[in-house]
Each structure stands twice: as C-alpha cells, then as structure tokens.
Amino acid sequence: MGGPLLGAVTDRRGPRGVLVATVAVQALFWFGVPGMPYGVLLCAAFLGGLSMVPVQLVTRQAIAAVTTPGQRQAAFALESVQGEVAYLIGPSVVILGAATVAPGVVAWGVGALIAAGGLALAALNPPLRAAAEEGAGAAGRPPRREWLGAPMVAVLTMIFGTTTLLGGVDLAIIASLREAHQLSWAAVVVAVFGLASVAGGLSYGAQSRPLPGWLLLGLLGLATVPVGLAHDWPWLGVAVVGAGLLTGPTLAAMAHTVSWLAPAGARGAATGLQSAAHSAGFALGAPIVGVVIDAAAPAGGFAAAGLAGLAAALIGWLLSRRVPAADSASFVR
C-alpha cells in the first residue's frame, strides 16, 4: 500500500524529503520493536510498512534517468543481481546475530542500517529524470489513463506472478527438506538458488537484446514445476538451478519494462505500483503454496508456484496482445 503513495509524493516533491521522512519513521519503529507487546507490534508494523524507506523506488527511477536506452537492460540486470546478493546475505546475518546476541540488539542494528542507507541516498539525492525530461514535472503528472493501460497492467500482473512463484518456492524448499529430515541443508539449497539467479542476471545483462517478460516468466514457471521430483538435498540443489538462472533475468526484464512504459511525470507512481506488486506477490505466495503443501505434498508446492507463474505469464501475454505493436509495448509483447 505504501509504494504507490510514496511514489506519487516523490513525483511531486522529489526524493530527498521522502527519504528523510521515512528514515525518521523507520528509526522510531525499529528502536521501539524490542519493547512492544505483540498487539502493539502488529499495528506498528503496519504503519512501518506504509513508510518503508523507498530505496528501490528511488534507485529504479534514477537508473532510468541516468542511463541511455541501450544501457538499461544491463543496469536493471545489475540492480536485480544486487537484490539477490542482499537476499543471500541479509537473512543469514540477522539469524546469526539473533542467535548470538540479544534479538533486541539485532533489531536496533537493522534499524541503524536502514537509517544509514536511507540518509546516504538522501545525501546523494539522485536525479529521477533525465535532462530532457526536466519539464515533465513542471507540466504536471499525466493522467493515469495515458500510462496505466493494458501494457502496464500486463507487466504488473507478471511482477505479481513472479514474486508469488518465488515466495512459494522458498516455502516448498523448506517443506521438502523437512519431509526428508534434511532441514539443516535448506540454507545450502537456497544459496544455490540465489547464486544461480545472480549468474542468470549477469548473463542477461550482457545480452544485446531484451527478451519478452512473458516468455521469461513462462520459462521460469515451467522450470519450477518439476523441482518437486527431487527428494533429497543434493538433487534439490541441482533441480533449482534452472529456475534460479531464469529468476534474475525475469526480475530485470520487469523492472526494465516498467521504466520504459512509464512517462517521466508519473515514473514514481508507476515504480510504486511495481513495488506494491512485488511485495504483494511475496506476501501471498507462501500462504497460497502452503495451503497446497498441507493438502497434498511438498512437490505440490513447487507445482503450484510454477503454475502461478505460468498463469501470470499467460495473462501478461494476452493483455499485451490487445494493443497494437508499438515501441512502448515492445518489451511485454
């Protein structure tokens, strides 16, 4: 919910004020986490979620502003790789810290890192529009109907499907290894998945031409469905490589497409919707796949995650086919 709101404010006010304000809220939230009763923590977490420091929102707009069209595929691929590296390192560091020092100290440390990163980005104050686009802000935000059409809805649907798939895969890995009594190897399998995604993202960024987002997501879904056939950790580690290699390119292609379709005056709102679709998929992916795992088996979790990706790819393809061929829709067709 917070992404579109912060994106709209960023379009009007610029990034620095939004970053400073959200850093202040996050600092208060994380400082108070250790002393909050559970009910209070739920309410505070909702408010904290509305005001997450919009790092991705700002950096993705800045990438679109400071790169040429020919550079953006590589730039967004690198941004996707950076996210995978953070995903590989961050949770492990936090879990290790919580196991060795007081969890409250870890919460303060997380808050301090968020504040430091947000303030550093505010100090940089990156440009969100290219020099040729500076007049877009003065001209006002373009009507939503001009940019939130079938192509943008297609890519937002595919972003939601991608993260639904990824959130489900994480849970299915845990469930499969728990059933095999090999849960201690989960970190290794997840690391293999993440490293494969990094390799795929770097390879995609080196290519000269983008691939359609619906094609990459469809292939990711197809590669995910049979992963559940692996029944112990070595084979599961091998099985997730194919899906991992397609994860980085899929995420990079989606970010690239949003930046291409969004006009400069509404890029913050569009990027905020991208963040919302991204977060919603992760939030819903695990519960949806969890229901399937409970009703069937861990292998069914991988199948459900893959089919969710395939369904989103099909919807994205159908929506993109409804508009005439044009430069603004070329990346989702």
Descriptive report:
There is one protein chain. The protein is mostly helical and 333 residues long. It folds into two domains: 115 residues, no CATH class; 186 residues, MFS general substrate transporter like domains (Growth Hormone, Chain: A), CATH 1.20.1250.20. The protein has 14 helices and no strands.
Number of domains: 2
Spell out the CATH superfamily of the largest domain. MFS general substrate transporter like domains
CATH class of the largest domain: Mainly Alpha
User: Which stretches of 5+ consecutive residues score pLDDT under 50?
Assistant: 326-333
What is the topological layout?
Elements: H1 2-13, H2 15-32, H3 38-50, H4 55-66, H5 69-100, H6 103-124, H7 135-139, H8 144-147, H9 150-179, H10 186-205, H11 213-224, H12 233-261, H13 267-295, H14 298-320
Short account of what is shown:
This is MFS transporter. This protein has 333 residues and is mainly α.
What attributes characterize this protein structure?
Growth Hormone, Chain: A, 333 residues, mainly alpha, disordered C terminus, 0% strand
